[in-house]
Amino acid sequence: MTSPLAESAPSSREPAWADYAVLVVDDEAGVRNFLQRALQARGCRVDIAGSAEEGAERLVEHHFDAIVLDIALPGRSGMDWLRSLKNGGFAGDVILITAFADIETAIDALRAGASDFVLKPFRVDQIVNSLQRCFERARLDRENFVLQRQVAGLGGQVEGLVGHSGPMCRLSDLIRRVAPTPSTVLILGESGVGKEVAARALHEVSPRAERSFVPLNCATVSAELMESELFGHVRGAFTGAREARRGLFHYANGGTLFLDEIGELPLPLQTKLLRALEERRIRPVGSEAEVPVDVRVIAATNRDLRAEVAAGRFRQDLFYRLEVVTLAIPPLRERREDIAELALHFNAQLSARLGLPPLAFTPADLARLSAYAWPGNVRELRNLVERSLILGGLPAAGEAPGFAEPLPLSLAEVEKRHILAVLDQCGGNHARAAALLGVSRKTIDRKAAEWGLA
User: How many Å apart are CA 320 and CA 317, to the nearest integer?
Assistant: First the structure.
């Protein structure tokens, strides 16, 4: 005769149980121990409690993705604790179990926020199937969150690495070598060189490719909200926190978190990020419980972080923790042989996306593109191709700020003229100019101050 445990042996289609933690709360020791053995056999981390009060203590000490909760408990009832959990912002699933129930009890349980309702006596596969549905729902929620950010433009439209120059071939080789490891990676390069493209390429050839890639530009989130954005918060953690919210570490669990412009991260958050990297655990704002996470972090910056460390603006220990492996992406002016290939790539891609006929580049056009210094790098080239598709051709000399400037100008002067032209076009609005140039508002403010315009 086959045991219930053997009948419900894990299959390859089920979730990775080792990624989840379950709390079983029941006053019957036999039920507690039976479920603990059954779920641990699947690789799940399981803790047990004999009452709601004991369960609440476990919840303070540890993170749980789901709770299997008996309604009839000594002291506080399971139904009462369920309502308290949901009102308090518990984001996990709660499966209620009971030996005494009617249709009204079941309806009350679902209204209170229960994910499922199972009658005793039950077979282990009933609990297993219920938990599977909960875990699958959580996985879909994570994927949906990431997709929504991409559709909203927060993650950006990303192309693969393009170019066959020596620097790009070396970069591709290094990405393939680094990708299989779990090591933290620091990507260095000027604004617009394609740091997120490289980060995504690394993710796509890593063992984490089937999980989420979650990008965050650290310059776009205020210092007050950054901790909640990364680690999440519980209900009532601060003014305005009416509901619990999961952070980006949660949505990147099992995958990759890309932190662009890491140099903009406030010093207090640098300490908490370092702790998350070293201990692989996070603490949501306002919570006493730590949550285990399995996230690979890729950071990027266009700043000299060693100089930032020397100036006291960046933690030395975090810098060394991030600099396990460094990828340096060269500016476009140092790989001019890639410019024509990139222009043709963007021409084909953007013409299809915009529903416009592709540009008919002549050899002279490509030579002209290759001769320009491209202070905005690949992003500037892409924007020029898109604008040219909309207008029906490349701008003539003098029509596009910067693009028609002669090469004898220094790179700094070309950058200054280009930024000033865009600022003039935007009526001096730094935020609009930053959006058009694809840089942070802080960069424009800093440049304006250098030129005496602040």
Answer: 5
The answer, as to whether pTM is greater than 0.85, is no
Give the bridge partners for 257, in sequence order.
Answer: 214, 297
Domain of 86: which CATH number?
Answer: 3.40.50.2300
C-alpha torsion 200→204→209→214, nearest 10: 10
Residue type, 159: E
How many CB atoms lie under 10 A from the CB of residue 47?
18
Q: What are the tens digits of pLDDT across the range 228-241?
A: 999 988 887 787 77
Name residue, tokens 């970069």.
Answer: 171
Q: Which amino acid is at 168?
A: M
Label residues 320-339 b or e (16+ Cβ within 10 Å = b): ebbeebebebbbbbebeebb
Distance CA 105, CA 127 (A): 19
φ and ψ at 145, to 5 degrees?
A: -60, -45
For residues 300 and 344, state if they share a domain. no
Q: Are residues 206 and 234 in the same domain?
A: yes
Strands 185-188 and 296-301: parallel
Does residue 146 belong to any structural domain of this protein?
no
Query: What is the identity of the amino acid at 326?
Result: T
Query: Three-class SS of residue 259?
Result: strand
CA gyration radius, the chain? 27
> CB neighbours of 230 closer than 8 A, spacing ≥ 6?
216, 247, 248, 249, 269, 272, 273, 276, 282
Dump pLDDT digits (tens) for 140-184: 777 776 666 555 544 443 346 888 888 888 898 899 889 888 899
The last residue of one of the domains, among 328, 349, 369, is 328
Name the domain count of the chain.
Answer: 3
Structure-token pair, residue 227: 């901790």
Q: How many other CB atoms are found less than 10 A from the CB of residue 98? A: 19
Q: Which two tokens stand for residue 423?
A: 């600022």
Q: Which domain holds residue 394?
A: 334-450
The angle formed by the CA atoms of residues 126, 131 and 132, to the nearest 5 degrees, is: 95
- Separation of alpha carbons 326 and 185, rounded Å: 6
List, in order, residues 6 or more apart from 210 with CB less than 8 Å away.
none
